[in-house]
Amino acid sequence: MWHEITEFSYRTRAYRQEQDFFLFRVAEWRVDTAGMDEDEQQTITEHRWWSAAEIEATEEQIFPADLAGLLRRLVLVGGR
Fold first, then answer.
1. Residue 4 · residue 19 · CB < 8 Å
2. How far is the C-alpha of 71 from the C-alpha of 51, rounded, in Å?
3. CA atoms within 13 A on the CB side of 47
4. pLDDT value for 15
5. CB 31 within 8 A of CB 47
6. pTM metric for this prediction
7. Among 20, 48, 63, 68, who pairs with 55 as Cys (CB 3.0-4.6 Å)?
8. Which residues lie below 8 Å from residue 4, measured CB to CB, with a gap of 6+?
9. Contact 62, 55 (CB under 8 A)
10. CA distance 77 to 33
11. How far apart are alpha carbons 41 and 3 in whole angstroms?
């Protein structure tokens, strides 16, 4: 549903990352963290579903920057 290329630094190293975002509806959701490496285990502290309104209202840094707008557009144009 969305593709972007982003550049950022993390722990003094520069990265260029291609990101693909998908919309997939499921009846049930379970996160499996078994495949996380040590760095991911240290830096990913929680996970949950966010509504577009919650994304817009939060002070948290969320990527892509216009994720709430993207979600709203997907629902309007048939990402149902």
1. yes
2. 9
3. 9
4. 95
5. yes
6. 0.69
7. 68
8. 18, 19, 64
9. yes
10. 32
11. 26
CA distance 40 to 17: 16
CA distances from 61 to 30, 55, 57, 75, 76 (A): 23, 9, 11, 23, 25
Q: What is the pLDDT of residues 11-26, one digit of tens each?
A: 899 999 999 988 788 8
pLDDT in tens, the chain (80 residues): 889 999 999 889 999 999 998 878 889 888 899 999 999 999 888 888 898 999 999 999 888 888 999 888 887 776 54
Q: Where are the domains of the chain?
A: 2-76
